[in-house]
Design brief:
Length: 258
């Protein structure tokens, strides 16, 4: 089985960076401004691992190229986080193709900037595939998420968790990945009432919310998928050192299917 290409899209505080730090011989690429690993390291909450601060899109591509060319001994390349690298990609495209104009006559004109940027983003994914094939490295993209209203063509609109990147970036990356995991805290709602034709429903009270759950199959509330036969969800241990092991065990228990 080929090393996995994973996206971990999770709520704030879930432990995305911690999972990366405990992966197998990881190297963490930190997009400019994404310094969560350094904060965790200073607090003694994660182990010391190799990391590179990436200031620009061209630097991101160059660093991946270096990993392809050199056997560094790492087994996992972690990109923290997807939104930060997307911003670098968009900035690069805006400066190169639109003279630095983000407005309606430049990058923002009829979504042109996003359309062009997808091609550049695919170059990164292609390089990651080369790294995976040549060096046998797993790839992990960490992704921040937000709540967004889904325009439902079959009924009423509803809110769902989505990645904080543009839809075009997400579509390309989710298709490329072998697994998209959505991480959240399990919450039990007490006292709620489901709406019907005569009532508006009543909001309940959330209780619990300490157990971390990783979802591996898509639901209306979030995107998720996997090619390993993993069931709907699985728990992530409270011990940070066991977080990656829980994911890896699930992948190894399954059988890769296309």
């Amino acid at each position: 089985m080929q090393p996995p290409r994973l996206i971990i899209n999770a709520v704030e505080g879930f432990g995305k960076t911690t999972i990366e730090a405990y992966a197998d011989k990881p190297a963490i690429l930190m997009a400019g401004g994404e310094t969560g690993y350094l904060t965790l390291l200073a607090a003694g909450l994660v182990p010391q691992v190799d990391r590179v601060l990436i200031p620009s899109w061209t630097d991101a591509l160059a660093v991946v190229d270096r990993f392809i060319a050199e056997d560094t001994g790492h087994k996992t390349l972690c990109l923290d986080a997807m939104g930060g690298f997307e911003r670098q990609c968009h900035t690069h495209v805006c400066n190169r193709d639109f003279g630095g104009d983000w407005g309606e006559r430049g990058f923002g004109s009829y979504q042109k900037g996003y359309d062009v940027s997808v091609n550049d983003w695919l170059q990164l994914l292609a390089r990651l595939d080369q790294l995976r094939a040549r060096r046998g490295m797993a790839i992990i993209f960490a992704s921040h998420c937000k709540v967004k209203t889904f325009k439902n063509p079959m009924g009423a609109d509803y809110d769902r968790w989505v990645s904080d990147v543009h839809d075009k970036t997400w579509g390309a990356t989710a298709k490329w990945a072998d697994a998209v995991f959505f991480g959240n805290f399990f919450t039990l709602v007490e006292g709620g009432k489901m709406p019907d034709s005569k009532t508006q429903g009543r909001k309940g009270k959330g209780v619990g919310g300490t157990q971390r759950v990783m979802y591996a199959q898509r639901r209306d509330a979030f995107d998720a998928k996997n090619r390993y036969g993993i069931g709907e969800s699985f728990d992530i241990p409270n011990d940070p050192a066991q977080s990656w092991a829980a994911i890896w065990n699930k992948i190894n228990q399954g059988k890769e299917v296309r």
